Amino acid sequence: MITRNLVFSGAASLALAAGIVAVPSFAQDYPRVSTPAERAQTEDLNRTAVPGSVVSTDQENYDAARARYEQAQSNYARQLEEYNAKNRAYDAQRRNYRDGVEASQDQADAYEGARTQYENEVAPPVVPAGRLSELWTVDRVNNRELYNLPVEDIDGFMTGHFRRVEVRAGGEKMAVITLNSRRTISIPAEDVRYDPIRGVVVAEWTSRDLDHVPPG
After folding, report:
1. Which of 150, 116, 133 is nearest to 191 (CA)?
2. Angle 19-25-26 (CA atoms, 0-180°, nearest 5)?
């Protein structure tokens, strides 16, 4: 009996030991149960998540970068076109200005050529020097009658229009004349005469000399 009990006791001990060893292997087959803290954290994440939100992917990042690049390219193209348009407008203004200057110069040259031809080919008769003394001095006529009368030079060319006689400092009388070039000059009143028959003022100067008188 003693031997049987020992054998039984030994077998029971072995079986118990085997059961203890086998428990961990058997326990691994069950799913792990979340702790209350983990479940609370999961619920909190579900509450704060944006509906329909998805995590950005590499494709989305690429698309966004490409869109920014294309927008930058579009802005550059627009600025370049504006710059070119301003350059074209500036060039057009320069061409117009240059054409205007050349046209003015051509007109001046044509006027000078016509004037020279007129002086050489169709010059009016020179007023005889003796006849100048027969004309009136301008101080015999008031300014209202003399105003805007044609002024002829000593050679008989119409060189401008008479304005007035004015007295300068020191009592000097000056005849004020506006030339055909629209410059207004003053020469001594004693150097001009009034022709009452023809209604003109005659200056004892040539047109070239009058052109060299400074304005004033």
Report:
1. 133
2. 75
Phi and psi at 188, nearest 5°, equal -55, 135
d(CA 85, CA 12): 104
Give the bridge partners for 186, in sequence order: 176
- pTM here is 0.42
Burial of residue 53 (number of CB atoms within 10 Å: 0-12, 13-18, 19+): exposed
Q: How far apart are CA 120 and CA 116, in angstroms?
A: 6
Matching residue, tokens 């007295």: 167
What is the rounded distance in angstroms from the CA atom of residue 103 to the CA atom of residue 160?
25
Amino acid at 189: A
What CATH architecture applies to the domain 129-211? Roll (2.30)
Question: Look-up: residue for tokens 């031809």?
Answer: 117
Phi, psi (deg, nearest 5) at residue 142: -80, 160
Size of the chain in residues: 216
Higher pLDDT, 111 or 144: 144
135-153: pLDDT as tens digits: 999 989 999 999 999 999 9
